[in-house]
Every structure is written in C-alpha cells, then in structure tokens.
Design brief:
This protein is an alpha+beta fold. The protein is built from 24 helices and eleven strands. The chain folds into four domains: 2-144, Beta Polymerase, domain 2 (2-Layer Sandwich), CATH 3.30.460.10; 145-230, Hydrophobic Seed Protein; 241-246 and 258-394, no CATH class; 401-450, no CATH class. It is globular and about 90 Å long. Magnesium ion binds at residues 25-26, 38, 40, 42.
Length: 454
Amino acid sequence: MGRPLERLREGTRGTEWEGRLWLVGGAVRDRLLGRPAPSDLDLVMERSALEFADWCWRHRLSEIRPVTYPRFGTAMVMVDGATVELVTARSESYRADSRKPEVRPATLLEDARRRDFTVNALYENLHDGTLADPLGVGLQDLRRRVLRTPIPAEDTFEEDPLRMLRAVRFRWQIGLEPAEGLWDAIRAKRARLAIVSRERIRDELTKMLGLADADRCLNDLLETGLLELFAPELAAMRGVAQGDYHHLDVWDHTLLALRNLGPGDLVASLGVLLHDVGKPPTRSVDAEGRVRFLGHEAVGAEVAERWLREMRYPASVASQVAKLVKGHMRLMSAEEFTDSALRRLVRDFGPLLPQLLGVVEADASALRPGVRRIDVPALRERIRRLSEQAPPAALESPLSGSEIMELTGWTEGPRVGKAKAWLLERVLDGTIPPQDAEAARAALMEALRSGDLP
Ligand code: ATP
Ligand code: MG
C-alpha cells in the first residue's frame, strides 16, 4: 500500500475518526485483483465528509484547503500528493423497514446502491482492514469477473448515463464479462447520453485510449450505439469498403491500426483513430471500378479538428492531431525517400515527427497481409542519422535577414524574406550544408547573378 494511504491511516489513528473511514472503489478493487494501487483514493464515512475534510486541513493531513461540494456532501483533500475524494454515506434510508438508518451496514448499503458497479462497491475499513460487501455480490462478481450494476441496470444508467461509458471502459480495463442484460440496458438507455457534457465524455474516451484494449472499447461504443451520439464522423467509417491494399473496411482497419500502435501517447492515438475519418465523405469509384478517396487526408484533417474541438480537447491537441491526419499519406506515395525529403519532413513536423511515424507505421501494419509496405523502423534510423549531422534546429537559412541585406545592399522588404526562404530550400535539398554561412553567401550571389533568384 502506498504512502498516502499510510499517512491517512496513521494520521487518523487514535482520533475520533478511527474505524469510521472506509476505502472504496479502485483502491479496494485493484488490491483484491493484485493490480497496482491507483494513485487516487476514495473514502466513505458515515459522518460528514465536509467535517472530516476540515479536520484534515486543521491537522495538516491535507496539503490543500479542502475543495467542498456541500450540496453533495463530498469533498476533496490532498494527502502526500494524492487526491482523496471524501464522500458522506447517506444516512437517510429509503427502506421502510429500517428503523435505525444510522447503522453502519444500512448506510454503506445505501452508498453501495448508488455506485456504478458491484465490483466498485467493496469497502475496506482503513484501520482494522475489515472488508464489507454490502450488496452481497460484489466479491463474488469480482472473483468471477462479472460487470454488474448494484440495482437494475436501466435505473443505474438512467440516473447517470456516463456510467454506460464507464461500463465499456471497465469491461476492458479489468477484463470483466457483462452480466446478462447489461449491454441491452445500454442499448435501451443510450439516448440518455445526451445529458452528459462533452468534457466528461472526452475524459472517458481519453482513458479508453490509454488502454491496450482501446480498439475493443471503441468497438463496444460503436456496437452499443453510443459512438454515433458523440462521434457520428467516426461511426460513419463502419462498412466503408476500400481498395486493393486493404482487406478491412475503414472502421476495422482503423481499430487494427489503433491496436498495433499501442497506448501511451494521446495525440498519436487520436491521430490513428482519426487518420481515415475523411474517407467516408470522399469515397468514389472511378471508371475502372477502383475505389478512390481523393483528398481524404485534407478533408479528414478538417473533420478531425472540428470534432476534437467539439469534444473540448485543448486547441493544441486538436491542431496537432489535424496535422498528423493531413500528413499521414506523405510517406505512402513516395517509393524511395531522398535525404532531402526526410529533411523536409523534419522541418515540417519538428517535435511531432515521432507521432507521425507512429501513425504511419500503425496504418501500414493494418493493410492487407502481403502488400508491400513502408519500412518505418528503417526510416526512423535514417532520420536519426540525418539529425546527428544536422539537428532540426540547424534546418534554417544560414544567413539572417541583416546578413543578407549587408551582402546585397538591399533595404528591408519582401526580397529579403524570399532570399531567406530560398536559402532554406537549398539547405533542405542538400546543396548548401547546414549553418554554412560562407557557402550560403556564395550560392546567393551566384543565384542573383544568374537570375535563379529574381
Ligand atoms: P479508476 O480510478 O481505475 O478509474 P475507480 O473505480 O477508482 O477506477 P473512480 O472514477 O476513481 O473509479 O471512482 C471511484 C468510485 O466512485 C468508483 O469505484 C465508483 O464506486 C464510484 N463512482 C465513480 N463515478 C461514478 C458514477 N458516475 N456513478 C456511480 N458511481 C461512481
Ligand atoms: Mg479511482
């Protein structure tokens, strides 16, 4: 168990809070599964969480002034760098037969019934380690790897439709089998997703993209009908048949590429997810019967950027992903890459180049088996060697504007900029060595004399 947990336990031992604090959610679930402890903790108590938050602050247990949500009886503190969510277990019981609503099992039961899944409704007493399973099925579901809602699934999803997305995520994050009827309940309640904000949907999607099974999550989103509610552009890829290089439709190709990319870099994952989003709107069949997607990368870049902004991804993420989508065909067309083409690639993509190569490699890996495909590892190696000779920062005009003016006697004006751009092109095509001012002067004077540079 991690340090934040130790701090919390020791910091409350022997106080009025001892024995009254229950860990719940990921921390309990993942420990029982033998998985690494999550960084954030959730604590339930039968007394006011607001009071406890305040106590934590006064006793220097929390590093921040608590963030409180009095309307919900919840608060957040920070212990040893970890966020700790504090929740008041509802003491008022809805059960007509409960005469003592303040009894522990009743209140934990009440709390458990409001949670999303039975495996997330297991409680561990912070001090004596007692495990509580108020629903009575949580432990069994965890052991048998079953994803089940505490109350009838349609009610759970009706209350908070975000739980439908969490169901898809947990299924693949933990490896759970949906209980009978769970997926039908999602299909029945999917339209409720309309009341969930784009930000919350985005956060769930981002978590899914961080999983090794991101492709399976997305497929579930499509099959349940959830995807088309917030990403009709992506759902449109299903069933779009492609030409000779492909054995899969655009959707399945995209999912295979996503799987082969692997998790870890959100921009690259979104780049792969969206790389062919321009295909459905640009599909045509030419006179010879060949399937064409003319300009799909440019259309796709626009669609991707618009959709990412709708989903409230940061503008920088949206524009980087759009750049990857737009550039993903650049390496496909060429047979052989000259050093000059690679230098241009470095200049155009800069720090985004590793992600572009990731997208291109994943894309190529999902083509029809046996077709000739681009050798991305070899390309990476060549780029590495080229960058050793000339680091990306050296790919600029060897002469500054004032140096050009001094040399030519020109005054400031567009001509200076044009000369700089011309010099950069010569560096990229390899006729002037990077950062070689002498060679640049000679080349510039020669070009002006011969009229190459009007
Ligand atoms: P992870 O941190 O790996 O995503 P977690 O189970 O800890 O998993 P959190 O989002 O941290 O998930 O939430 C903590 C707990 O709060 C959950 O285990 C669940 O019991 C409850 N919970 C969170 N969100 C919801 C929700 N939308 N509806 C019902 N219960 C929820
Ligand atoms: Mg958690």
